[in-house]
Predict the structure.
Amino acid sequence: MSEIDTIETEALNAIECATDLTTLDGVRVAELGKKGRVSGLMKTLGGMDPEERKEMGPRLNALKNRLNDAIEGRKTALEDAELEARLVSEKADLSLPPRPERTGALHPVMQVFEEIEEIFGAMGFAVAEGPDIEDDFHNFTALNFPIGHPAREDHDTFFMAPDKDGERKVLRTHTSPVQIRTMMSQKPPIRVIIPGRVYRNDWDATHTPMFHQVEGLVIDKVTHMGHLKGCLTDFARAFFEVDNVVTRFRPHFFPFTEPSAEMDVQCDRSGGNVKVGEGTDWLEVLGSGMVHPNVLRNVGLDPDEYQGFAFGMGVDRLAMLKYGMPDLRPYFESDVRWLSHYGFKPWLLPSLSGGLS
Ligand code: PHE
């Protein structure tokens, strides 16, 4: 075997056996480095006679290229293996809770917000929002509560300290002021729902000073009371997940709607808890009505041209009914035991096709 063949066999073997990049680089230096064996042979070319050099030159060059290729190939393989090993050792299972004993849960109020948004979203409603701190104009006056009208007192309003102009802002007592904001900033046709926090000075098993509402507003030229009833009956069926829920619209009074109605759903109370869609009892679910002509005038819409309906529902109460929670107060006590019992898996988003709850 010629020296070239010996070097090639040994070098290729050493390259193949190198299990890390440092060893591999050692092989490279020993063969192809300045003082390496192949370089040593290259240096002898100068002393050869022309015939010999003509033969040996290309052979040595070819050897050099083959060794270089083998080193490059091995290097890539080692780097790939190293990356692979790192990916395996650093793999993180993102679905594992960081502290299994403290798995988070979605609060039932948030769950019900998402369910309501899913239902009205499918009907073509967009979501609108407004501020928690409101002025008298949006919370009352524009909604056709006359100054000094007793309906203002019904709301047990929280007033802020007067500002430098003497104006007393309020914590909004309902989401209806966002009706006004929406109509003043958008042109009809309007079809929005408005989820949000509202505040009233009240505290017992079924009332907390902060609670949640979803408002709805439809404004166009053709919508009438029949649409209101159809839309809200469809909502009740989807929300309670009972196809044949019967609804009843009872005349009521709100300053900002005329006519106004409260919607009840058929239910059965005989077994101690409320079963929706059965029995002979009724459960009040929401307030609604056709938007009052004065409200349309207050936002610059002509009531002879535009009309529509509005509704408002208490989300905390709907969550109590749907998920069988008897008391509202623990909603806001941040007790993780309550939350892990009544909460929802945050990644299971409600959907009409996959199921709401
Ligand atoms: N804002 C009313 C309330 O808080 C509910 C409502 C909204 C009624 C829209 C009619 C229309 O009680």
